[in-house]
């Protein structure tokens, strides 16, 4: 095996000229500081504490300067309080124009209460020209004349012997108002809805108009406006019920002085367990002699139709009158049907259907 030997160059040769000087040799080598020297220099570089500054001596407080006494300010002379004024005194101070003097009322006409006079609307109602509400409407519109003179002031009074006439406009308006005859079934109230039951008015629809209606009047939505019942028929009763827009018809049927007959068929049974039929004395009491609500009832026509059915003809209509009359004589009402009002009969009108009051047909 061959061995290669490397020769060390001789010192001072060309190789030594390029060799770096040995660390720590020669004059350029920096000596390290000892620990004590380093701590001494660090202590020299540390900031020295500044000497404490002494506070300047406090200044002696000066005594407050005495203030000269204040002189009271002169008060302005007091004025007498002005009298209290109303908020709108300036406005009230302006002269107001005096209202014109009311016109002198003609004797027997006007709001003055002359002896023997009565309200014009009441007189028109007595004459059968209109209801009081209709009369007031016509008076306000200038459709009413008294002795040929127009009276347009509400509350006017007239003498009974004075002549009252109405304009043709009022007559035409009245002619357009309708009256409906309805065969009310059980379960409907006559007037406003109550206790969840619907009013009979809801049955007045085109679908429920009787096909044999010969009035010649075509149904219009305006016919439902102000259509009110003229008389009561309780929820458990059936038969003829009148609804009208005409104040004259309502006055004929339910006015204080109304004498229009109303006929009913009433099915009854005795209340006691014996089942005895109504006595002759009880029948006489039904005809005349009973009182309701502390008021004596008018005479009535009462008769037997068959073994369990009575026929009543009344000229008044107190609430549940027939039922209360029967209870007073020991009878229980099982069914009640109104078949006639005045000269108008229920006839063949089916239950739940209606027809118009025909021209020339009236209750009196």
Biggest β-sheet strands, sense, barrel: 9 strands, mixed
Write down the CATH class of the domain at 179-257 and 347-356. Answer: Alpha Beta
List the uncertain runs: none
Task: State the separation between the terminal residues, measured CA to CA.
Answer: 165 Å
Helix-strand string: HHHEHHEEEEHEEEHEHEEEEHEEE
* CATH superfamily annotation of the domain at 179-257 and 347-356: Pseudouridine synthase I, catalytic domain, N-terminal subdomain
Structural class: alpha+beta
Helical element count? 9
What is the CATH architecture descriptor of the domain at 179-257 and 347-356?
Answer: 2-Layer Sandwich
As a percent range, the share of helical residues equals: 10-25%
The coarse silhouette is elongated
Please report the total strand number as a whole number. 16
Summarize the structure.
Among the domains are: 118-175, RNA-binding S4 domain (Structural Genomics Hypothetical 15.5 Kd Protein In mrcA-pckA Intergenic Region, Chain A, Roll); 179-257 and 347-356, Alpha-Beta Plaits, CATH 3.30.70; 262-341, 2-Layer Sandwich (Alpha-Beta Plaits).
Overall description:
This protein is α+β, with helices and mostly antiparallel strands and 364 residues long. Among the domains are: 58 residues, RNA-binding S4 domain (Structural Genomics Hypothetical 15.5 Kd Protein In mrcA-pckA Intergenic Region, Chain A, Roll), CATH 3.10.290; 89 residues, Alpha-Beta Plaits; 80 residues, Alpha-L RNA-binding motif (Alpha-Beta Plaits, 2-Layer Sandwich). It is 19% helix and 19% strand. It is built from nine helices and 16 strands. The longest helix has 11 residues. The model has no long low-confidence stretch (mean pLDDT 81).
């Amino acid at each position: 095996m061959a061995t290669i030997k490397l020769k060390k160059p001789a010192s001072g040769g060309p190789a030594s000229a390029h060799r770096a000087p040995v660390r720590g040799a020669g004059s350029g080598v920096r000596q390290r500081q000892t620990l004590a020297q380093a701590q001494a220099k660090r202590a020299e570089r540390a900031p020295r504490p500044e000497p404490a500054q002494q506070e300047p001596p406090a200044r002696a407080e000066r005594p407050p300067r005495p203030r000269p006494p204040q002189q009271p300010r002169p008060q302005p002379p007091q004025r007498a309080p002005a009298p209290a004024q109303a908020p709108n005194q300036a406005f009230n101070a302006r002269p107001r124009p005096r209202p014109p003097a009311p016109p002198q009322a003609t004797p027997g006409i006007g709001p003055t209460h002359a002896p023997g006079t009565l309200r014009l609307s009441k007189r028109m109602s007595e004459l059968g020209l209109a209801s009081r509400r209709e009369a007031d409407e016509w008076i306000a519109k200038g459709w009413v004349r008294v002795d040929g003179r127009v009276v347009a002031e509400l509350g006017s009074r007239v003498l009974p012997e004075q002549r009252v006439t109405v304009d043709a406009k009022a007559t035409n308006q009245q002619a357009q108002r309708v009256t409906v005859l309805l065969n009310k079934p059980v379960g409907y109230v006559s007037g406003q809805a109550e206790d969840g039951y619907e009013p009979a008015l809801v049955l007045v629809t085109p679908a429920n108009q009787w096909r044999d209606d010969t009035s010649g009047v075509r149904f219009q939505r305006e016919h439902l406006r102000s259509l009110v019942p003229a008389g009561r028929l309780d929820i458990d009763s059936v038969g003829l019920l009148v609804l009208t827009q005409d104040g004259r018809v309502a006055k004929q049927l339910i006015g204080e002085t109304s004498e229009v007959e109303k006929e009913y068929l009433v099915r009854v049974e005795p209340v006691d367990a014996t089942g005895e039929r109504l006595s002759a004395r009880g029948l006489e009491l039904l005809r005349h002699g009973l009182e309701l609500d502390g008021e004596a009832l008018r005479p009535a026509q009462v008769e037997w139709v068959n073994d369990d059915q009575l026929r009543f003809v009344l000229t008044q209509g107190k609430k549940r009158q027939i039922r209360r009359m029967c209870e007073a004589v020991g009878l229980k009402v099982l069914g009640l049907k109104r078949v006639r009002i005045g000269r108008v009969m229920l006839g063949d009108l089916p239950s739940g259907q209606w027809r118009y009051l025909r021209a020339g047909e009236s209750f009196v």
